[in-house]
Amino acid sequence: MKKYFIFVFLMALLIFTSSCTRINEPTNGQIRLELDNVMKDSMAKYNAPGMILAVWVPGHGEYVNAMGSSDIKTGRKMQPSDRFRIGSNTKSVVATVVLQLVDEKRLGLDDKLGKFFPQWPNSNNITIRMLLDHTSGLYNYSEVKRFGEKLEADPKKPFNPAQLISYAIKEKPYFEPGKGFHYSNTNTVLLGMIIENITGDTLANEIKKRMLDPLALSNTYFPKGAETNGALAHGYMYDDGKATDWTYANPSWGWAAGAMISNIYDLKKLITAITDGTLLSKKLQKERMSAWVDLAGGVKADFPSARYGYNVFTFGGFVGHNGGIPGYVSYMVREPKTGITTIMVMTSQPSGEASLDVLKKVIRIIMPGRKV
Predict the structure, then answer these.
(1) Is the separation of the CB atoms in 14 and 360 below 8 Å?
(2) CB-side neighbour CA atoms (13 Å) of 207
(3) CATH class label, 3-366
(4) Residue 299 and residue 255: Cα distance in Å, rounded?
(5) Domain-by-domain residue ranges, the chain?
(6) How far apart are the first and last CA of the chain?
(7) How do residues 231-250 score in pLDDT, each as one tens digit?
(8) One-character DSSP codes across 312-368
(9) What's the predicted TM-score (pTM) here?
(10) Cα 186 to Cα 198: distance, rounded to the nearest angstrom
């Protein structure tokens, strides 16, 4: 299957050191020009028709900009308020709902998968915690060839959660539970199904009443299928240089692992709540911000300080997630201590390194002297 059908899980964050003492104001004319150039260069490098970049530095101002076109056909310009598909950033939302159920003592981090899915092989050795931090070993359904072929043949094809996990249950696990790390959409789809099992409500409704409404995220929603609540910035994939519009493809193939829609302003509120723990108990938030596991393979080699937790990453003190779904690549990240936040979306889905490339350049401009 084509690699762009696999959610990008590499968080494009930075490795910081505590030696940085200088912060450039993003309102400064020269700094704005440099950030503008980052956008122009990134759009050219990754063949993105449109891009939004935001950097908020408490006490030092903000940079919020949109470039390019949100619709190639009409020529409509990108706007900072445009909505877009956020891909795997959805996972951080679903994980927060799971942790709320833990706070309510309706679920335990050490509860076994077998409690909900006894038919799954080795389910009595897989815990909720392992689903959250991707140490379960469960095969990623979106890496299954026959799944990718079906999705590629019909991007508007609807999938239900049971169908998604059916692709994974037949595959050999990557490793024994708790014996490694492999990012797998299967983990988060199972968590979404567990939420529905416990609450007796839909995942979309639970997300709305537990997170979207309390945080006043009026531009964020969990679609049931291909429907959209208003317009989106169009997202494109490129084959042999030809753009294909994936804006209205059915994201049900991602469901809990990546179906949500939002904009940069709502994502700023969202990542602030996630890093501050406003929706969790202090005890559980402390655990979320400290229960990191090592990554594996090339990821560990390329980013030695990177760690993964309960569907959030940490890189040198910054916490967040990113998302890749056909037509879009994005990230949301915040440093809890300083409140420095940056959010980005490009309306194409290039390689996983695209986010890292953008973030490196942004941080070098805003925080010269910090190692990236």
Answers:
(1) yes
(2) 25
(3) alpha beta
(4) 25
(5) 3-366
(6) 33
(7) 899 999 988 778 899 999 99
(8) -EEETTEEEEEEEETTEEEEEEE-TTT--EEEEEESB---THHHHHHHHHHHHHHST
(9) 0.92
(10) 18
